[in-house]
Amino acid sequence: MISHLERGARHLMAIIRVACGALLIGSVAVNFANIIGRYFLAVSIPWAEEVMLFLMIACVFLNCGLVGWAGRQIRMDAFVSLLPAGPRAIVELVVEVIVVATSLLLAALSWPVVSMLAELDQRSEAANIPLVLPQGMMPLGFLFMGLLIAIRLLVRGVAPADPIASRSDH
Amino acid sequence: MAAYLIYFALPAILMMVGFPIFAVLVLTSLAAIIFIADVPTSAVPTYMFGSLDNFPLLAVPYFVLAGEIMAQGGIARRVVAWVVSIIGGIRGSLAITTVASSELFGAMAHTSVGTVVAVGRLLYPSLKQNGYKEHFSVGLLASSGAVAVIIPPSISMILYSMSAQQSALLLFTAGILPSILIGVVDAAYVFAYSRIHMVPLVSRARWVNIWETTKEAGWAIGTIVVIFGGIYGGVFTPTEAAGVAVVYSLFVTTVIYRELGLRDLWRVVVSAAFLISQILIIVAAAGIYSWLLTTSGIPQQIVSNIEAMHMRPWETLLLINIGLLIAGSFLEPPAAILILTPLLLPIVTAAGVSPIHFGIIMAVNLSIGLYTPPFGLNLFASHAIFDVGIGQVYRGVMPFVLINFLTLLVITYVPAISMVLVGGQ
Q1: CA separation (Å) from B405 to B195, B209, B379?
Q2: Residue A169: which of B21, B111, B284 has the nearest Cβ?
Q3: Adjacent-strand bridge partners of B261
Q4: If exposure means fewest CB atoms within 10 Å of the residue's CB, which of A153, B173, B272, B277 is most exposed?
Q5: CB B228 within 8 A of CB B222
Q6: What is the pLDDT of residues B231-267, one digit of tens each?
Q7: What is the pLDDT of residue A164?
């Protein structure tokens, strides 16, 4: 059962990884094509900005699952890392369980908005993209995050804290 | 009172317990919605999505990707070799080279730890071989790398511009002189250190070497020309410049230098996408938190309370600087900016500080926080990268914390340093 779960999680992550890489490359390509068009051919792509934004948004939300699996969300772990191993593991477990619940709650809260957009067939102004697509990435991303963290907890338990890996400095 | 507990005490506790920052902001917002604000819970996903649906924000993923490509594709190595060839023959030239390389690479890669890694791996062995003490070398690298937070075009500035609703271009311009000032002060300190400790002289700069390294690094240095020339020449918006930087660095590393194969490139793209999600999910969550905080009237109450205390502007700024330094040593710049800007901006604006100037003050504070003991991120990074005891790292950075704090005070109390290039005082 556990190994099936882990295998399933790895397949899901491989798909997300490819999707996010493709979304990022696509966004860079649209941006570059728009610049070339505007400065060299005097023609801009009217839907470029919308599409780039939607690609970025999809990339951000979908990747949440991978970040969650790796336990590398940006956090302030300075105090927790000072705790002895036992209490630290308990605190980290409680935090992870609450993060799973929060992710699933966010997915649930986003769902009515997505269904409403689908029902009304709302579309973006320039690209005429159904808004359900970009907006739908949010519940999907949070669902993946909740699911993948839950599987990680079942398979591996709480991952060890790494003061560098979980932080970003830009 | 309940509002203060929810907006400030709750996130502080959640952060200390180790919750991811995005979850801290979401849980705080949900608590505020349930207990205080008269807002439906559907506002949470709507505002989170809306925070990301923001065109200037697109510069962040592109700069992150460009930075990853440059760090992996041999650009850093050539830039450092170029600076080394130019600065030579004076006592302390290697340490000054470290400062200059960090400024240059920070402007290209926009990441503090990335700069410490890229410059440190190349210069740390030489620093030690040439008579610089271990703790000094590590302190120098850990502190110089942090300039990436300030030197334009910085990701922190883009996030601040979004949070404070200011022009990113003005912030970039305002950041030029302060980042140069920090570099000059650091260089002056390491020069003095080298003279006092009689660090041996390295070989004099030679035109032949300079020409060779310039030829080799020409394409790499071109990145700066593309980014800065494009933005300040009015050719590109910052977002477009970031996109062009990606394509340019891709071209240089794969076609000219041929140091990135397709497999490496895919790894870089995947890693950049991961990093982008780590940062921007906080932007999404900060959107709802900052909207609730702003509409709660709390920032205005705090402004009134501070005004009632009759604090002079310099006292307010000093207090805020100390608070930001402490926050910066616990929180990464993106998180600190997104959480603290909605709260602090009304206070400093009431004290007569320009939001552009405050953006620079905030960035300088948070950059110092990155190497302020005991928890600054660059300290742990340096400890891991250079395999030096954390005590040595603390000892090494302390002089830099001190001199850069003094520089911060100058930048804070002499607004002209930030504002002169944007046409203000």
Answers
A1: 23, 37, 17
A2: B111
A3: none
A4: A153
A5: no
A6: 878 888 888 888 888 999 999 999 998 888 889 999 9
A7: 43
CA distance A163 to chain B (A): 7
Q: Chain B: residue nearest A31 by CA?
A: B243
Q: Does the pLDDT value for residue A72 go beyond 60? A: yes
With residue B115 as reference, give the H or E element that holds it. helix B112-129
A73 phi and psi, to 5 degrees?
A: -65, 145
Cβ-in-10-Å burial (0-12, 13-18, 19+) of B222 comes to middle
Across the interface, of B42, B269, B334, the residue whose CB is closest to A112 is: B42
C-alpha angle B344-B350-B351 in degrees, rounded to nearest 5:
90
The two structure tokens encoding residue B92: 């302390």
Classified as helix, coil or strand, A130 is strand
- Amino acid identity at B300: Q
Tell me which residues of chain A, numbers 34 to 93, contact chain B at a CB-CB cutoff of 8 Å.
34-35, 39, 49, 52-53, 56-57, 59-64, 66-67, 70, 72-80, 91-92
Q: Is residue A25's pLDDT more than 90?
A: yes
Which carries the bigger pLDDT value, residue B405 or residue B114?
B405
In angstroms, rounded to a whole number, what is the distance separating the alpha carbons of residues B171 and B164?
A: 11
Q: Indicate the residue type of B350.
A: A
A80-94, B175-189, B376-390: the lowest-pLDDT one: B376-390
Q: How many CB atoms lie within 10 A of CB B395?
A: 18
What is the reported pTM? 0.84
Nearest Cα residue to B22 out of A168, A111, A81? A168
Neighbours of B421 (CB within 10 A): 15
* B23: nearest CA partner in chain A: A99
For B417, the token pair is 């340093």
pLDDT computed for residue B299 by the predictor = 81
For residues A132 and A116, give the distance between their C-alpha atoms in angstroms, rounded to a whole number. Answer: 9
CB B249 within 8 A of CB B70: yes
Q: What ipTM was estimated for this complex?
A: 0.92
What confidence tens digit (pLDDT) does each residue in B69-121 have?
A: 888 888 878 888 888 888 877 788 889 988 988 888 888 777 787 788 878 87
Under 8 Å between Cβ of B175 and B151: yes
Sort B363 into a burial class: Cβ within 10 Å, 0-12 / 13-18 / 19+: buried
Side chain identity, residue B203:
S
Residues of B in contact with A34 (CB under 8 A): 240
Phi, psi of B84 (to 5 degrees): -60, -40
Which residues of chain B are within 8 Å of residue A106 when distances are taken between CB atoms? 26, 44-45, 48
C-alpha–C-alpha distance, residues B215 and B219, integer Å: 8
Q: Would you say A136 and A58 are in contact if contact means Cβ atoms under 8 Å apart?
A: no
Q: Measured between alpha carbons, how far is residue B240 from residues A111, B144, B237 in Å?
A: 33, 28, 5
Q: Helices B313-330 and B333-350 sit at what angle, rounded to 10 degrees?
A: 170
